[in-house]
Amino acid sequence: MEELFSSNKYCTRCILRYSVENVNQVFESEQFSPVTGCGLCLDVLSDENIEKTVLSIVEQLKKYEAPLYTLAIQLPQCILIRAYSLSVFIKQKKLIKNSSINVIPIKESLKHKIIQQVDELSLKKHCSKSTVLVDLIYSHETNAADLSKIPQKKSKKKYFCKTKNSQPEVTNQVIEDFLSNLKESEISKYISFPPLSVTSLCNFSVNTCQESIFIAGRYNKYSRELSQTPWIIEGERKTKSSVQDLICGKMQEAVQASDNKFISSGREDVDVLMLGKGRPFAVELINPKVSGLERNLVQKLQDAINKSTDLISVRDLQVMHRGAIQKLKEGEEEKKKLYRARIWCPLPVSTEKIDSVCILKNIVLMQKTPIRVLHRRPLITRERTIYETNITRIDDFHYDLFITTQAGTYVKEFVHGDFGRTNPSLRTLLNADVDILELDVQNVEFDWPPSCDDVNCVND
Q1: 382 SS3 class
Q2: Total-model pTM
Q3: Residue 107: helix, strand or coil by DSSP?
Q4: 343-385 per-position pLDDT tens digit
Q5: Least buried of 50, 150, 179, 225, by fewest C-beta within 10 Å?
Q6: Would you call 108 exposed, middle or buried from its count of C-beta atoms within 10 A (0-12, 13-18, 19+)?
Q7: Burial letters for 179-193: b for 16+ Cβ neighbours within 10 Å, e otherwise?
Q8: Are 277 and 264 in contact (CB under 8 A)?
Q9: What EC number(s) does its UniProt record assign (predicted)?
Q10: Tens of pLDDT along 408-448?
């Protein structure tokens, strides 16, 4: 190894990686003077780089309450090529007596040292199962030049991925496959042999995030001027607020999340009330700074939302795991929903006609996409079922229609027929010019999430 030492191309720590038995020894010995522009680690193992990255990581971790974090490191891919070049050079020059070269990887060495110092300065502890992820990404100007020498042959395997600039990016698998098939006699055509020193340092960025927190529950909506989600058309907001705004704003503030995503079991129109036990929903709170929510804090959050407005209310709020949220969308079309529709008719409808409709069960509808939503939904024909119907006369012109439907049924269109696009409709069944005045969802038959009436609320 003396030839490597005297060449002054590689830093002390990189040389030690080829000669010591464990990662601690890489940083224990300083018997050789460090060099600038190490041709192997590109100076990421230097004290200067480690100090900068550690301070940056510690500063980012101050944003999070969690006592644990996990570190992921991404190095320039040219480091793979340079490491291979040196290993072949050592083998050919017989610089190491053993036939096999046992090398401590750069990433392992770097990660070991950074974790040591971050743990000490941040008073947090590294743990692979932590919900807080620190992503340390290095880049170097020589990377593109080194990778450009590797032939990029088309492959059925997904070795190449697209970058933001739609340019193919060489994956580590491509590099490893190329090197494994490269003849030692041809190495110098593609790789500097042995690796040369560099004149510039690596750049790095530190990105931190915490796993999302999911809060599930059910909501009621008491306004006919409130959309479920922000209603924006051509950049103009059509309603002052929304169910999502009223619920998610409080939640996002409570956990100091950077963003939120509202998920619900179906949706009601802006002019439709959501009554009964409410509609199941979940909120994904993205990159929260708070590490978790205890049951009593979730209850306080529920109370705060309910006291802040009379337009909605929430119940059964609880923290759930990501996997449990999948149930919210399962069997979407198999759920049953109970509606009350106030309907109007210009002429009285006979009791006989009303009774003839009320006895019908499992009415199969063929519904073309309603005219009112054609601007945002594809034109298709959906088969939906009305399971039960009941009509109560209020006076000769007004009636209450109670129906149990398959989820996804367009109830307004079932009443007036949508110019024949829904068939049959209440208009054709009664043979009368009926129309709908108002609509309420009275129940969503979906037992999710579990009730929190009991203190020991299930959350997974």
Answers
A1: strand
A2: 0.81
A3: helix
A4: 999 999 999 999 999 999 999 999 999 999 998 899 999 999 9
A5: 225
A6: middle
A7: beebeeeebeebbbe
A8: no
A9: 5.4.99.25
A10: 999 999 999 999 999 999 999 999 999 999 999 999 999 99
